[in-house]
């Protein structure tokens, strides 16, 4: 069983920054692929950023490239999402998710491939 706990959401003005954190339980955290999904009201859930089990592959949605950075600290069992130059369209509930079984260098964008999910944290960007 893996438990994921997110923190770091909040209200920020356009152009500002936030850093989301996701702490995972489990002694094999370094072998999980991790993703940050987001879902805005009335929209489908999308993978904003993900990192493969090996750490060698990182994915960013086109809408966040150049502004968001995903990273992991295996010593702290934590994955981060640094979000800069935030826009009102980034407003969403952000959830981290763990994928334990995809191929070593794969980042899957399919939500059902992730076995464990955090509770989500709200990010609101005002204009």
Write the layout of secondary structure elements.
Elements lengths: L3 E4 L2 E4 L4 E7 L8 E7 L6 E6 L6 E3 L7 E6 L4 E6 L8 E8 L16 E2 L3 E6 L1
Parallel strand pairs: 2-11
Antiparallel strand pairs: 1-3, 3-8, 4-5, 4-9, 5-6, 7-8, 9-10, 9-11
What report would you give on this structure?
It contains no helices and eleven strands. The chain is mainly β and 127 residues long. The strands form two sheets. Strands 2, 4, 5, 6, 9, 10 and 11 form a seven-stranded mixed beta sheet that branches. A four-stranded antiparallel beta sheet has the order 1-3-8-7, with no helix packed on it. A hairpin with a 4-residue loop joins strand 7 and strand 8 (78-83).
Summary keywords:
mainly beta; seven-stranded mixed beta sheet; four-stranded antiparallel beta sheet; 11 strands; globular
C-alpha-based Rg, rounded: 13 Å
Characterize the overall form. Answer: globular
Q: Could you say which structural class the secondary elements and strand pairing correspond to?
A: mainly beta
Low-confidence region ranges: none
Strand percentage, roughly? over 45%
End-to-end separation: 40 Å
* Helix proportion: under 10%
Structure at a glance:
The chain has about 130 residues and is an all-beta fold. Helices cover about 0% and strands about 45% of the residues. The strands form two sheets. Strands 2, 4, 5, 6, 9, 10 and 11 form a seven-stranded mixed β-sheet that branches.
């Amino acid at each position: 069983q893996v438990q994921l706990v997110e923190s770091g959401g909040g209200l920020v003005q356009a152009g500002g920054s936030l850093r989301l954190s996701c702490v995972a339980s489990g002694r094999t955290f370094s072998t999980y692929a991790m993703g940050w999904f987001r879902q805005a009201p009335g929209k489908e859930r999308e993978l904003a950023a993900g990192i493969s089990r090996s750490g060698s592959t990182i994915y960013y949605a086109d809408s966040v490239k150049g502004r968001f950075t995903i990273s992991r600290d295996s010593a702290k069992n934590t994955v981060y999402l640094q979000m800069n130059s935030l826009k009102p369209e980034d407003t969403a509930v952000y959830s981290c998710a763990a994928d334990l079984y995809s191929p070593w260098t794969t980042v899957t964008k399919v939500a059902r491939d992730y076995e464990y999910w955090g509770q989500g944290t709200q990010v609101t960007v005002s204009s």
